[in-house]
Amino acid sequence: MGIRYDTQQLLNDADMVEVAQEIGIRMKNSADRTRNIGILCPNPRHSDRNFGNCFIRPDGYYECFSCGDRGNVFHMVMQYTGASFPEAIGIVADTCGGRDHYILSGTRGKYAAGITVLNQKECKLFGVCNSRIYIPVRYGEEMRAEAGEREKLAAWNEEDEPVFLIEQCAEKNPLLELMKTDYECYRSMILRKAQEAIQKRQNAIEECGEGPRLEAEDVEWCMEIETEIEQIEDVLLKYFPKDEEVKKITSHNAYGKELIIGSGLYPVQFSVPF
Fold first, then answer.
1. What is the pLDDT of residues 26-35, one digit of tens each?
2. Which of 16, 142, 165, 231 is deepest in the core (most CB within 10 A)?
3. Residues linked to residue 27 through DSSP beta bridges, in sequence order
4. Which is the CATH superfamily of the domain at 7-155+166-174?
């Protein structure tokens, strides 16, 4: 049996803009991810030369209004690179922290034993930035980004033509590099960020409970925050299962649940002895 990947989790975690930059698709300013981002259509049968036809949408799909091509991040990679579907999965996984994160070990949702560092979704939960590091390599008119590069509109020349800055990816996964070169520093940082993330959420729940009465929407919000705390603890136990400091961090008091139960709005279930 070949290697199988959790493609649904990968779709949830993947940033289509980062993947497009990684494989060399030209795009306009990618700073605002809440709006459509213009790219040149990845369809090999469409010789797209002008921005304005194809866009990456905030919902994780791209669409070309000229040729009609559209799809998710896997389809985009296959169209632009000519990769097969399994190859496209690997390319996308590499941009999300590494393929080991998404290898299934017989049971859906269970990762294989090769887990390395936090994936992008877990980084966001912890408040950790693990974005690629780019360095400038070329500057001028008529510049084009290649695979592993990205381009930025830097200025306009006297002829009102665009001048581009081309940047090359120097480090795809800084967190992984830190773990390899200084594991204790990596471990210390992750545990500290986890504590900060948990404390921040606990403070938010406490502030919510200072009001005269919890409304139903307040209870729902508190339950969501409490779920995030549990997710942070689960991530810690996944990566550091035998760490004594992690055991202390994950034994927090469930103030959120106590507050919600005390409000009288918590959906308590009773067991009937007959």
1. 887 666 667 8
2. 16
3. 39
4. Zinc finger, CHC2-typedomain (3.90.580.10)
